[in-house]
Amino acid sequence: MKQFTGTVGVTGLNATDNPGPGLAVVRALRSDPRFAGRIIGLPYDAMDPGLYTPDVLDGAMLIPYPSAGREALFARLAWCQQRFGLDVLIPTLDSELPALCDQEELLERMGIRTFLPTRAQYDMRSKARLDELRAHGVPVPKAIAVSDASSLYTIHEELGGFPLVVKGVFYGATVAWNVSEAVAGFHKQAAEWGLPVIVQEYVSGEELNVCVIGDGEGGIVGAVPMKKLMLTKSGKGWAGVTINDPGLMAMAEKTIDALKWRGPCELEVMRDPEGGFHLMEINPRFPAWCDLSAGAGHNLPMAYVDLAMGEQVSLAPYRVGTAFVRASINQIVDVAAFEGLSTVGETPSLRSSDLPEGGHMASPTVLRPLH
Questions:
Q1: What's the CA gap between 194 and 132, in Å, rounded?
Q2: What residues does 27 pair with on adjacent strands?
Q3: What is the pTM of this model?
Q4: Position 353 pLDDT exceeds 60
Q5: Which domains does the chain have, with CATH numbers?
């Protein structure tokens, strides 16, 4: 396949203890020998740590939060396209997709290509509707969407008793062992992510994940399954390894076929002590560990770029036993980088290859959003 020499915009650069997927997407693209293009970071905050990671971004432009609405986002993307010649957009956060789904034609008129699910697909995989996949033979724990905390006093009777899992509509989950914890979990998730809150049957076992790209017709372009080896206190994977599990992959194929999913997603699956699989969530974007796919020789972010550009994709089989381990590091930057971002909103290029020999590490170009 030919080299890619265009420009890719990537969101989700909040690389904290609960990292966004953006930096992993960028690293996967940079690692591919066919990628000869530029990468523009699209952060919401000038303090996003991914902005200060050396040798990954060619520039950046602040974009409005999803709450600002589609018009503000598209005005900003149009400016980004004019400024950088943006060819492909890779959104990596759940909350970004409602503004972008079903807008492929409009984005293409702007010169920006994507490979994303339809709004109907996005809605069907939501936590509130996930159990509808049982009609397609996908094993999903029973769940109920609630908008009133009073429901928590009796809902355990419908879900087989405690414990239960109380989930935010976008992110977050709390395991509740009694009514008091369920009510507290409801208020916590509602305050952070709004209503409804999802209350799901608890399933114990081993957590597995699959990073997938669907072709939009029920088939899988590529997929890499992973088992977490180390978790943070909040349950986020800090290390993981690619595995070979035919049962897990069969479940992934059935799920993608039922949804006719288009674009990237992550399946969160629980394998119970008896060996049964239970689909717990579908995240409608790349996960924060998606660069593991590139390390395993099955580069899914690069496949997204190819699909967005209308190219045919043929991926080699992934390597079983490839692992990742995250690390927290201090990134040393000149205070002028912060000053530029918070005042004039602009600093030089980040990539060290653009600096003179012996020059200081810099931050990317960051332009202020339109008002």
A1: 22
A2: none
A3: 0.89
A4: no
A5: 7-114+332-367 (3.40.50.20), 142-201 (3.30.1490.20), 204-325 (3.30.470.20)
